[in-house]
Amino acid sequence: MEAVSHGSNAFMEGVYKKRWTILLSVLALAAVVASSTAHAFTAPITGQFMYEAYDFFINDLLKGPVGFVISAVCVLWGLFSVRGNWIMGLVLIIIGTVVFKIDAITQSFGAMVTMVDAGADPATIIKLVTAK
Q: FRET partner for 98 with CA separation of 20 to 30 A, picked from 26, 61, 72, 110?
């Protein structure tokens, strides 16, 4: 005779999924609460380390006509593909928005590229990074 299952496996799978959801939610909340300071990235000025690369990629390419065309194509392609594959459409719309606002996004990442100056010593960089 076969053992009859009354859905106990399905019940336990649901319990485990809820545990993972609760655990991930608690971890995300703890990460938000634990972050006490925010560091902002300022765009490098002429003569600083990586200024030429930032100027070319952000100002000339992504904020220029190339970035506008990439952004517009991604958003329009995403809008037209939402009916067929909504995940692909959503991803394309997000990519188009990211390319359109790339300068604000790079400044809010918190990267410390400007502190890695050509003549800066590690002690000065550590002081600037850890100072509140």
A: 26
Instruction: Give the count of beta carbons closer than 10 Å to the beta carbon of residue 20.
Output: 10
pLDDT in tens, 97-124: 998 888 777 776 654 444 444 455 666 6
> Do the beta carbons of residue 51 and residue 58 sit within 8 Å?
no
The predicted model scores a pTM of 0.50
The token duo for 74 is: 């991604």
- Give the range of the structural domain holding residue 93, as residue numbers without chain letter: 51-130
Does residue 6 lie in a domain region? no
